[in-house]
Amino acid sequence: MKLAALFSGGKDSTYSIFLAKKQGHEVNCLLTVFPKSDESHLLHHPNLEWTHLQSQSMQIPQLTIRSESDEINNEIIVLEKILTKAMDEYLIDGIVHGGIKSQFQKEKFENLCDKLNLKLVSPVWNREPLEYMYELISSNFIFLITSVSSGGLDDLWLGKKITKNDVSVLYTLSQKFGFNLNFEGGEAETFVVDCPLFLYPIKINKERKIWDGYRGRFEIVDANLNYNA
């Protein structure tokens, strides 16, 4: 099928593209919706403005749109608008969705697909958390943590590229503090800087860390594709 990928730049949306292509689908475009704020329950927020570098590196064109409200119904209307544009411009048959456990999110996308007569492809749905995290690392996905908002995750994780050893530590912390190891509930957000889909890795030249004692963000201030890597 010809697909559009709901794309945030994080590990799950990027890995879902990787798996969809392995399944024989074409991913013809990326769809990125900029939420009004980090209060959105449906959309990813940190560092979305740098997803254009990932789009360039994967050589997949990107369509973007901005939501003027964090209200769910408004975000669905915005999603429908950008999906309709993708149908017109790229003749898509369906969408790739990177959700793992959020039934709420999946149902919203399923309902939208039914309305537009599109198929929903969810390659990482219901994956076992620890196995999935190790699979990401084994598949040469290099991603860093761009936000944390859970007990057990302090400012030392901000900007950290996750290794297999880190996955073991995160698993122990998730058992102790009760957060989702895959960060499906927003306990943390990620940004992919290199993977097999990329022609060139992303080099972060300048960043800013913001920490309030409980939660924090790693903001990319300047970055580019590293053509010399």
Can you walk through the features of this model?
The protein has 229 residues and is α/β, with parallel strands linked by helices. It has two domains: 2-121, Rossmann fold; 129-225, putative n-type atp pyrophosphatase, domain 2 (Alpha-Beta Complex). It contains six helices and nine strands, in the order βαβαβαβαβαβαβββ. The strands form two sheets. The chain has a five-stranded parallel beta sheet with strand order 3-2-1-4-5, sandwiched between helices. A hairpin with a 4-residue loop joins strand 8 (202-211) and strand 9 (216-225). The relative contact order is 0.17.
What would the keywords be for this entry?
229 residues; alpha/beta; Rossmann fold; putative n-type atp pyrophosphatase, domain 2; 2 domains; five-stranded parallel sheet; four-stranded antiparallel sheet
State the gist of this model.
34% of the residues lie in helices and 26% in strands.
Mean pLDDT, all residues: 92
Determine and state the CATH class of the largest domain.
Alpha Beta
Q: What helical percentage do the residues reach?
A: 25-40%
Low-pLDDT sequence parts: none
The CATH homologous superfamily of the largest domain is named HUPs
Q: Architecture of the largest domain in CATH?
A: 3-Layer(aba) Sandwich
Return the CATH topology of the largest domain: Rossmann fold
How large is the share of residues in beta strands?
A: 25-35%
